[in-house]
């Protein structure tokens, strides 16, 4: 099979795939006749072939996928007009703290936010596939250590945590949380507001427009005490 035909196979498979596809899985299209380096080279060529189109080929944490370019979103939104996503302050701050200061315990999050963290918020983020337990801190009670997942990176279109926007880049932060909000099943305010925890009524938290996200992210991740130890026991 020549490179043109191989790229057509890769292109078709990626367009039809419902989720990112790893190079290992893409190699099975050719019965492993092509090595990883060759497949990677073909993907980069295919990426260039689509460079001037409204859809791009990108590499994310779990593989490769086609997606619409960010500048196309304003046009696509006209097909399905929706209001900007709204988050609870607690959900947004909790996700931001885990993303920027991971791994953290629930106690760390509470120390930084200064309030009790509703367990349903953590469960909601876990159920969505954005947060997971990666180990336990070797201290009294061995509390669970939370970190973001590869799914979290995939949903943001990132390959690694190093690509998270800096705290000083609020414009990019807004785009980041807009991307999460556009995903079906993203955490919304009504899910946890006013939900009792351990028999105690938790007051409803404020809803937050996406445009206000940067201030909350910076506030959540810059406040609180020094980061605790990062000992992990998997």
Structural class: alpha+beta
Number of domains: 2
What is the element string, with H for helices and E for strands?
Answer: HHHEEHEHHHEEHHEH
Estimated radius of gyration? 20 Å
Report the CATH architecture of the largest domain. Orthogonal Bundle
Number of helices: 10
Into which percent range does the helicity of residues fall? 40-55%
Give the mean pLDDT: 77
| Outline | globular
Q: What is the beta-strand fraction? A: 5-15%
- Biggest sheet record: 2 strands, antiparallel
Distance between the termini: 45 Å
Q: In what order do the strands lie side by side in the largest sheet?
A: 1-2
Low-confidence stretches: 187-214, 224-234
CATH H level, superfamily name of the largest domain: Winged helix-like DNA-binding domain superfamily/Winged helix DNA-binding domain
The CATH topology label of the largest domain is Arc Repressor Mutant, subunit A
CATH class of the largest domain: Mainly Alpha
Polypeptide structure, described:
The protein is an alpha+beta fold and 234 residues long. It has two domains: 3-74, Arc Repressor Mutant, subunit A, CATH 1.10.10; 86-222, Winged helix-like DNA-binding domain superfamily/Winged helix DNA-binding domain (Arc Repressor Mutant, subunit A, Orthogonal Bundle). The protein is 41% helix and 12% strand. The protein is built from ten helices and six strands. The chain has helices spanning 3-16, 23-27, 36-49, 73-76, 89-101, 106-113, 119-128, 150-156, 170-181, 213-222; strands at 55-60, 63-68, 86-88, 131-136, 144-148, 207-209. It has a two-stranded antiparallel ribbon. α1 (3-16) packs across α3, α5 (89-101) crosses α10 and α9 packs across α10 (213-222). The model is unreliable at 187-214 and 224-234 (pLDDT under 50).
